[in-house]
Amino acid sequence: MKIQVDLELCQGHSVCLEECPEVFDVAETDEGYPKVLVLNENPAEDLREKVQKAAKFCPNHVITIIEDECL
Amino acid sequence: MMMDTVMQGLKAPPKVSGEKPQVGHMEEFGVNFARFLMRCNAECGELAEFNMGGQPTILMSGPEAQEAFFKTLDTRLSRAAAYQATVPVFGKGVIFDAPEDRMKTQLKIQVDALRYQNMKSYAAIIAKEVEDWIAEWGEEGELDFLDEFIQLTLHTACHCLLGPDFRYKMTDEFKSLYHDLEKGLQAIAFVDPYMQQPVFEARDKARVRLQELISAIIAERRANGERKYGDALETFMSGTYKDGSYLDDNEITGLVIATMFAGHHTSSGTATWTLIELARQKEYANEVLEELQALFSDGRELSLEALREIPRLERFIEEVLRIHPPLVLLMRRVLEDIDYKGSLLAKGKTVAVSTYGSHRNPAFFPDPERFDPHRQKPDTLWAFIPFGGGPHKCAGNAFALMQLKSIFAALLPRYEFELVDPPESYQDDLSAMVLKPGSPSRLRYKKR
């Protein structure tokens, strides 16, 4: 799986960081809201459940999980 | 009028009929602005220009126009310029009166107060407040639930924002000051918030006195040094600007007021409508009840974790927010001429979006007046917009939903609710800008 985030919509609520610190961090920015930082864009399968929770419970639905195309 | 050459040849948005000299459409707007905005859209389509007491205002309807509204930069479509009515309420130099970089920091600090650790503590506070509230109910009774929810959410808001000491010592003076501030933010304030009016004088006095009260808490906390509170005030007091300086008492007070205004009546109105619809829609209410009984039969606490996933209740609340969106009208001021698909959104005009109208677009919500939590979600993000959207989407949305879920997860398994008055007599009331059910909103309850 591959992780995509929409930084425009992120307000730095940090739910993802609580759910899955292996993949997500939240960093202060120069101005305005802190933003999600994806530490690992292609996380291993064993993190799937945590990543899914991060995506699901993000208040602004910033995180998208894209499935690998290869069969 | 000077016209940028690039902008020549653009169409002016069509004008809504029925404009009167001087007042424009204010009279019709004042009767029921949600319905008025639907008429604008029906008559003119995607863009509809009307006159709000002298201010030309363009209603933007449909997902495409709404996406443009929400995504256009603040420097071109300004919230601050559209919401100047909030300035005397929130305070000078606060949010929409602050220079842009300071406003951004203030809003960031406001969101800091909604982060995970705080949310956990808020969930516990709300669960306790709800328990204390129903502890006095007895076996059965009848209440005006609009009144009740206004009280309850004032208590939860004060408790989460300012801590238990303030909440449990909340005085009538505080309530009356808060009420004076509320009255300062009525429709007329959006025309000119500085008119010579008794309501605006009362507003300004209340703002001064409220800051004295909050400054006293701030001073006490600073004297207490290391103590931890887990409330929003603690976050507001520890937040800093880029240069490392802290918010002053005026700014902290402003953030407290702004947060209360954002969350209080929006929540009490939605909670009341949710209860009314639960009593009116028995079949769907039973589905929600079954879900809650299955999830909470073990008597587990209504913690943030436990409340996160309650799908049927969530869909029910979303349908309430679709039919009764608390904030009907969202506005921006155009700061520079904008070409929207060949039409001119001219500098100086206001642009607006109606959540109420968007939620009744039959292309996305067939048979829109029918309450149906099972209806399919639209495949666009820009049709269902109870919390707005884009970079400035309501940052309190997760808090609001958590609080609503906590309330109903506590109430429904224990009590049955019935409407006291005929079902069709419960109607939207828009007299105070924030949509709510009419007063009184009476229901009977009985222990299960």
- In percent, how helical is the residue content of chain A? 10-25%
**Low-confidence blocks of residues of chain B:** none
In the sheet with the most strands of chain B, the strands line up as 1-2-8-5-3
Structural class of chain B: alpha+beta
The first-level CATH class of the largest domain in chain B is given as Mainly Alpha
- CATH superfamily placement of the largest domain in chain B: Cytochrome P450
Helix and strand string of chain B, N-terminal first? Answer: HHEEHEHHHHEHHHHHHHHEEEEHHEEEE
Give a short synopsis of this structure.
In chain A, 21% of the residues lie in helices and 23% in strands. The two termini of chain A are 13 Å apart.
Which properties best describe this structure?
heterodimer, A: 71 residues, alpha+beta, Alpha-Beta Plaits, two-stranded antiparallel sheet, 2 helices, 21% helix, 23% strand, globular, B: 448 residues, Uridine Diphospho-n-acetylenolpyruvylglucosamine Reductase, domain 2, Cytochrome p450, 2 domains, five-stranded mixed beta sheet, three-stranded antiparallel beta sheet, 17 helices, 12 strands, 49% helix
